[in-house]
Amino acid sequence: MPYEKELSHEVFEKFQELIYHEIGINLSEHKRTLVQTRLRKWLIKFELNSYSELYEKIADDKSDQMLIMLVNAITTNVTSFFREDSQWIYLLQNIDTMFDRENKRIRIWSAACSSGEEPYSILMFLKEHLNDFHKWDIKILATDISENMLQHAQNGIYEEKNMQSIPKHMKYKYFIPAIGKNGGKAFAIKDELKKYIIFRSFNLVTGDYTIFKNKFDVIFCRNVMIYFDRKTQDQLLFEFTNLLRKGSRVFVGHSESIQNKKLNYKLVSPSIYQLK
Questions:
Q1: Can the keyword Cytoplasm be found in this entry's annotation (predicted)?
Q2: Both 134 and 179 in a single domain?
Q3: What pTM was computed for the model?
């Protein structure tokens, strides 16, 4: 079946508006060729003649799963265990003062957990460095917009090549041998660790923040805001201020920053901010 070769400026604008309104990602004009390339195979898969037809199919999908598939196709889901070395050094240096030692309670939100490496890294770090770990009330909320990523995270199975950043003693302490997707060698996070993590689907742009009833000690929101414009970034960070205790931290990606002084955050270390 012949199909349209070029994504027109007019139809691209429709995709821009849909993605910005629903996800908050601000696609610039120079991304048009990338979007065209990524979506060309969808025309073939769904036996459609034009990008306009594909747009309508995505816009009419009430489950939003096609929209999320679209976002996954045009963004980069790059993650790894213990990413951003300097942030883990900061955590280690400040672990005695960051959490409620009187009530031994820790609440952490991994706000874009992808395939799970981040929340599992947080948990392994706490087990390694927190005295009397078993006496603490620890809950890690891990959210992502992609159901596929969340399913991967909940399964907790990782190919051996993705385990390189985990110290060897921790790999055998917190994982068990498993079989990977293609039958290769892999490792599965132990079930006893999963009980500390709650996985949920959540859209950081359109989600209902009133569902969060407890304050967080730390919010990890790394390499997400790079896709947002300033207005969307500020709105997201404003929502965070209502979910953090005074003195709590927000961890962002190394190429991200909080620029709005009215939001009451102060920089305490590269890519780490504290609510005043």
A1: no
A2: yes
A3: 0.88
